[in-house]
Amino acid sequence: MECPFCxxxxxxxxxxxxxxxxxxxxxxxxxxxxxxxxxxSLSGLIDRVDEDTETEGSLExxxxxxxxxxxxxxxxxxLFDRISKSEHAKVIYAGMGIAGVLLFLCLIFGIFYxxxxxxxxxxxxxxxxxxxxxxxxxxxxxxxYAKRAIEIAPNSSDAKMLLSSAYLKLERQEEAVDMLEExxxxxxxxIEAYKKLIGIYExxxxxxxxxxxxxxxxxxxxxxxxxxxxxxxPEFSEEEGEYDRVISLKLLAGSNCTIYYTLDGxxxxxxxxMYSVPIRLEKGEHVVSALCVNQYNLTSDVVQKKFTIDISxxxxxxxxxxxxxxxxxxxxxxxxxxGYEMFYTTDGSTPTRDSIPYxxxxxxxxxxxxxxxIMFDENGVASEIAKREYHLVLDAAVTVDEAYxxxxxxxxxxxxxxDIQGHMPNMEGTKEFVCDSAFMENDQIFYLITEYxxxxxxxxxxxxxxxxxxxxxxELYRASANYAGxxxxxxx
Length: 492
Description:
The protein is of the alpha+beta class. It is built from ten helices and 21 strands.
């Protein structure tokens, strides 16, 4: 058996629903007080009729005696007239008595009907009894009584819940949903209404509707039970305002949510930048807008905050070699300032703290190259970028490919490698040699060749060995950097 109020299952004969606590009425309501009142009234009425009848008899007798005396004086016979009048009077008085009884009964039953018709409890009990019949006719009766109960008590969530249950039993889902919506709008704590309504919306995949009714719910205990459907707005780790330092802004959201954001004040969408790491806000004005999207593709409201970062920015790094055309190599260097870090790129990309750290002078690359340098202070504030472009073309008697051959032949002769391909004795993997720059020592120009070890899987790492080939004399040397980062040559 199903509870008409919450839809929970009940055992046969059970009086109270263990799910919602509502009382179930299985028999039609009869008011014993009213019944007793009717019984007493009818009894009294009958006694009064008997008394009236006795009174009527005595009056008739007196009338007949007077009439008989008059007839004797006048000498007339009125036996049949007396009999006729007597019977006629009795009929009239009896009819008046019956009419009075009927009128009284109609009055009593009219009062009884009026009292019950305007009784919320009576209508609800009748609706509950009809629901227990578990039939189409019973559910139609539920609708009639529940609607009357709502007319009496317009804010009754129980009556509306019973009405919605009957609608669902009759497969009138749209009307049931309307009634459940009315309940949750006026009674935020009626958990059974939320369960039924959310269950219907979930079957229909109307997740936006679920999110809407839960956002409007002020009972946190109800919202917590359906947390998976609620999309909370993202939280910012910093309040908006002015700062004299760089901010590492964190965006926080609930589980199963993805945050998307913009930094120019525009409204974020799922096509915007997805938040994964703290947002670094440096000097200037920033308008950060963010929203959350959950697993049901529901989106939260957009949160927007403004930040003004007013700090001093480090000067642009000073680079020793200007951009230009070169026929002899130079060492590219910059003075490191205490408390600052410097990074650079050679592929044209903007340098960041994840780029190559500048630690020592850099040999000028062969051919065309583009360097971009940047500095960060101890607070992570970035300087302007220093950009340099070089074009180094050596007037050399030896090419780079010839320098490779000179080095590999010497290493084969010493047994360090087995062949030109760089295979090594008693080891897997190969040695690889890269020449991409040149340097000068004692007015002599040398190709700088770096040795790498290549594992069988293909990964490559520097071996720590470097070599130098004189671009004019073809002489081979070992190369190493001194404490200042400048290269020097040693006998091979």
